[in-house]
What we know:
The chain has 196 residues and is mainly α. The chain has helices at residues 7-15, 19-41, 44-61, 69-87, 99-108, 116-134, 138-149, 154-161, 165-189. Helix 2 packs across helix 4 and helix 5 (99-108) crosses helix 6 (116-134). The longest helix has 25 residues, at 165-189. The protein is elongated.
Amino acid sequence: MEHPLDEPQAIRRWREGDPEGLATLVHRYELRALRVAYPILQDRMDAEDAAQNAFPRAWQHRFDPERPFWPWFLRLVIRESQRIAGQRRSRPALAPGSEKDLWAVETQWKDHDPLPEEIAEQNESREALWRALRGLSPAQRTAVVLRYYEDLSEREIAEAMGCSVGAVKHYLYEARQRLRLALKSIEASSPAVPDP
């Protein structure tokens, strides 16, 4: 389904109650929202809930059409992801071996279909990264996702997360330290592959 409306037109029509405006915004930003929410939550259904819940919250908060939509909407996606992460603290962590499911979901949400060779080459390192990310707090995962997936500056991350730049620096520093240790540990425990 094509959405010929540009962003300002879609926002205007959405604010007027036209479902085509909302459909255009969902088409344009849902995949990007999922890519932010999923690494934070590491659960497919929770990520989909976070992305889907952010759209009605955007309607309730009455977006200012003079500002760019994505940075503002990104804050809502993050808040919704953190709210869901906070609600599920008592739930058990992901089961061992679920990294394969995480990889499958990540590739499903890509814009293109990867070649089997690409999947085979990257599968092992991605599984290790997902296991390492699991050990981070939701705030640390959020900072990592925004810095390395969304390529935001520390100031932009602070604005999106609603915290100070100092807190973002702390989250990123701690996350890098923990990821480095986790990845070294995973690498050390992996059997060596003999050269052909």
